[in-house]
Every structure is written in C-alpha cells, then in structure tokens.
Amino acid sequence: MQAQNRPGHPLRQSHDEFTALYRKLKQSAVGSARGALDIITPEHVRAAAGEVRVGRTVTMAAPVETEPAPDNPQPAGHRLTSAPEAVADAGGLHFATDRFSMNVHGDADSHLDALCHVVYDGTLYGSIPATTVTTDGATALSVEIARDGIVGRGVLLDIPRLRGVPWLEPGDHVTAEDLASAEKAQHVRVSEGDLLFVRVGHRRRRTEAGPWDAAHSRAGLHPDAVRFLAERRVAVLGGDGNNDTAPSLTDGVDFPVHVLGIHALGLHLLDYLQFEDLAPVCAQEGRWSFLCVIAPLRLPQATGSPVNPIALL
To answer: Higher-confidence residue: 89 or 109?
Structure first.
C-alpha cells in the first residue's frame, strides 16, 4: 500500500520543510517538565466536568490482544498462575491469580507515549539528554509525570464520517483542513487545554477486513496538521491508529508526528485507541465533546503505559 495523494494538498514534506516546522513548533511549546499537560488548568478541568450531562461512560481502549497477528507479532502475555478448576472440588478458600506482560509500544494495543519515548537528534523533549533513558529505565520525563491522571475536555473529530466512508485506507492522511472541516460538520471547536482524539477508522477496518502489517501501512495525520494542534494549544493527542501515517510523508523522518508532537510540543500521545463505541454515542447525543479521564499505570521509569481512557457524557 502506498501513501495516497489528497487533491489540492501536497503529499510529501521535504526534510528542510520538516525542520522549519519542527523549530517553529518547538518555540511555541510550553517548556515545562510536564510538557503540554501544564496547559490544562484547574479552570479547564472544572469546565470539562460540565460536559457530563447524561451520565454515560464509554471506553476508548481496545481489548488487549494476546494472539499473534500481522500487526502484533509480540502479543501481550496473559496466563492464569492459579486456576480455580484445579481446586474446584477441594473445598475451603482459594484464589484465582494471573500474570500479565506487554510490549507497550506495539501496533495493536491501546497505550500512552510518555515524553521520554521519542529521541531525536540525541535529545528528548526539552533538550534533555537521551542518556537519561537506559536499560534500567527513564530517569526523566517518564510516564510518572501523569501519575495524577489526565483529566480534561475531550473532543472527537471523526474524519471518515466527514468524508462519508467507513475508514481511511492505509497510507491516507488527515490534514489541518480536514480537522477544521470536521469541527464545522460536527458543530464543535477544539480549544485550549483540550484532549483531541482523531478517528481514522483503523479499528473498524481491522475488525471488518482483518489485521494487516500496520507498521508499514496505516492512515494518520499529515505532519503539517500538527500546526493545528499548536495553534489551538491542545494538551493531548490520541488516535485509533499510530497518529503517524505510514509510509512516512516526511523525507528522512519515519515518525514525524511523534517527533513534532512529543519532542517539539511536549504532547503525550495515545496510540491505537478505538472509537467504535464512542462515535455512535456522540452522534446519538449530537455532541462530540465530553469529560475525559486517562489514568496510566504508575510505572515510575517507563516510557509508556497501557491505558483505558474513559469518556463521560
């Protein structure tokens, strides 16, 4: 599958164009140790609580995959270490116990990328040396930054709905113009401190057409669309794919959206979510904003965490 041309929009981005955009975005970054999370103020959280009107909660995470697939050659491991069936007839008190392991940054399971996840030109976000991340863990910018949770106003922009298709094909990309058009069509506006979620239909395509090698071919944002996030002062970006288009649209940079989002702007990214539960609810309620709660695991030196974001409408 090849990256797909969009009429009226340049597909490729040269390395020089990327570098200019990277430098511009870096200058606009918050510049704090918590990155863009510091854009979310107590006032933003209180206002987001007003989004709860019907008291409905909806998950934005996909079930954890434990079977190998083309996009998941190293699936999560889960096994019962003590199964009740072994003592079913023994009487008395017994416990069922299990063990779980996971390749956090794979191409199937829902996860959050910490600010230490992206190394670019020898540094992390905020010009912190990449040497702060070792085999023993990250001593700076780990997922522990989000230990108190991420709570704010979530906004879902549904790009397949905008285009009248069930999903974007692998290699297709979402532009800043798409995001603005989706806002208009859905009667919502992305504002400062929002948690922005962009649906490309990756999960629906995976469910209906079967898994594929998403590491090499997937829909995502065009790198230039990150300007939209910076201009609106978005605090978090989440997608039902990897957020980056594959093949890459930038010469010499494989994950330009990750570099621009995490390394330049200090955005925590959420990859491989699923919006197939949430999108119909938003359509039914006639609104695409909600209170969102994200609670990553407390893994003090980890570069990311499995995550189950919850939308409250």
So the answer is: 109
Residue 87 lies in a domain: no
Total of domains in the chain: 1
Beta strand pairing status for 310-312 and 304-306?
A: unpaired
Query: Mean of the per-residue pLDDT values for the chain?
Result: 94
Q: Is the pTM of this model over 0.90?
A: yes
What is the pairing mode between strands 304-306 and 111-113? Answer: antiparallel
Alpha-carbon torsion 38, 266, 244, 269, what sign?
A: negative
The parent domain of residue 21 ranges over 15-64+104-312
- What are the backbone angles phi and psi of residue 199, rounded to the nearest 5°? -90, 125
Q: What percent of the chain has pLDDT over 90?
A: 89
Instruction: Write the CB contacts of 191 (distance below 8 Å, at least 6 apart in sequence).
Output: 153, 232, 233
* Separation CA 306–CA 129 (nearest Å): 25
Whichever domain contains 237, its CATH number is 3.50.30.50
